[in-house]
Amino acid sequence: MTGPTIGNLRVNGAILRYEVRGHGPLLLLIPGGSGGAASFDGIADDLAAEYTVATYDPRGLSRSPLDDPAAEQTVAEHADDALRIVDLLSPGEPARVFGTSSGAIAALHLLTVRPERLERVVAHEPPVVEVLPDVLEHRALLARVGETLRTQGLMPAMAVFAAGLRKGGDTPGPPAQVALPPQAAARAERTMADLPYFVGRIVPAFMSYVPDVDRLEALSERLVLACGQDSRGELPYRPAAFLAERLGAELRHFPGGHTGLTTHPAEFGELLRKAFRA
């Protein structure tokens, strides 16, 4: 199979690098905050047999530079970036959109503000912690992460953040030995380079976002909420489960945990295909 077509799109305050594969209705894949278009390498080609698959590096990440590297980030602006790609690649027809983690938050916001441009949205573990009844604990976590980043640096802040995402803030045991596909292992260096921006800009902006739950309820027939089957009890799982119950919707379970897209790409891609057909 030939490689993707690569383009650059000028948006407000940034240039987005995007990739396009395949033919058919547009399927836009929005990555999480510490990943870029490459995080979809394991599923994009297979999905391109059925869709025009567009992936991109969100503003400030990887190969999508900001005009002002110090610019504050907002969910609304990231969602507008996704809309610009939809308008570019599918001007006459609504698109299907998949987002994971912070990308799922951008997808939720886009659904609430421009539903006519979206056929269906699959949101995988959007960490919209503001909907949770124990939100004060999660606000305190974000404050600790920010303070640790300022006073101790990146890796201590990441440790605080990671501990807060575990089941009940569990003390971590030995790291799980997961054999990543070669492409995923090769992305590690770029992911590490993006971590300061992710922890310092994306995490505080996105995890303080308050979704319009009433609007999502009105649009629930276009929304699929999904979680990792191994994520139960962890913080990224809980908002999607809460929203599914509030909206009276089925909560779909995908293989793996929060990064199941990377650890189980074949099974993940097949379930994603089914979610858009249903």
UniProtKB/TrEMBL annotation:
InterPro entries: AB_hydrolase (IPR050471), AB_hydrolase_1 (IPR000073), AB_hydrolase_fold (IPR029058). Keywords: Hydrolase. Coiled coil: none annotated. One of its GO terms (molecular function) is hydrolase activity. The keyword NAD does not apply. Residues 25-132 form the AB hydrolase-1 domain. Pfam families: Abhydrolase_1. PANTHER family: AB HYDROLASE-1 DOMAIN-CONTAINING PROTEIN, HYDROLASE, ALPHA/BETA FOLD FAMILY PROTEIN. This is Alpha/beta hydrolase. It comes from Streptomyces virginiae. The lineage of its organism: Bacteria, Bacillati, Actinomycetota, Actinomycetes, Kitasatosporales.
